[in-house]
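Both lines are given unchanged directly below:

***
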Amino acid sequence: MHYSLLPLFSFFIGIVVGLTGIGGASLITPMLIFIFQVPPSIAVSSDVVAATLMKFVGGFKHWQQQTLDVEVVKWLAFGSVPGSLCGVGILHYIKQTGELNLDHILLQLVGMMILFVTLLALAQLVILTFFPNLKLPELPKFDLTKKSGHVSAMSIGAILGCLVGLTSVSSGSLFALVLIAFFQLDARKLVGTDISQAAILLLFTSLGHLTLGTVDWSLVLPIWIGSVPGVLLGAKLCQLAPQRPLRFIIYTLLLMVSYKLVSPV
C-alpha cells in the first residue's frame, strides 16, 4: 500500500491512543508490517523515532501542569536509558554478525511483547469489571527516599528499557503497570509520569536506532503528521467515550495482531 495513506491511518491510531491510553507502538508497528509491508527492523526503528515527538509533547504539557512525579521519572530513567541502549546494542550485534535473521527475530519479539502486555491489561480490565471488590495482595512499594528504592526502580527500569530498545513496544503500557503496582501513584500523576519517563526513554532509544541505519524518514514524517492531531482529538473525546468496552475491543484486536506476528502465515 502506498505511503500517502500513512497519515490517515496514523491519525486514527492517534485517536485510539488519545481515547484509551493504549500504547501507539502496539498499533503502529503492526500496521507498518502488515498493511504497508515494511520490514520489521525498519518498522520498529521508525516507530521509535515517530513516537518520541508525541511523548515529548505530552510530557512537556504534564510538566507545565505539574501532574507528574519527578523523582519517579528520574530514577526509572536512570535504569531504563542504559537498558534501552543495551537492547539496541543487542540489535547491533545481531545485524553485524549476519548469522541470524534480524527481521524474523523482531517479528517474534514484537508479537510476544504485544501478547504479554495485552494479556496483562485484559486481566486487569476483567478484574476491575467483574470483581470490583476483589482485594488482591499489595506489592511492596518502592521507597525513593532510600537506596534500596533507588536500586529497585533502576533495576525494573533497566529490564523494561531493554525490552523497549529491542521492540519499541511498551514504553508506556508496562511502565504504567509498574507505576501502579510499585509506586502506587494517584491517578492525577499516573499518566503524566508515564508519558514523561517514556519521552526520556524513547529519546535515547531513538538515538540508538538511528545508529542502526534502519530509520525510514519517509515513514516517520507521515506518522507525525497523522498521529499528533489524532492524539489531541482523542484526548478531547475521551470523556465522552465508554472506556471499558472500547478498551476490550482494542485488546481483542491486539491479541489477534500479536498471534499473527508470532505465527506469520
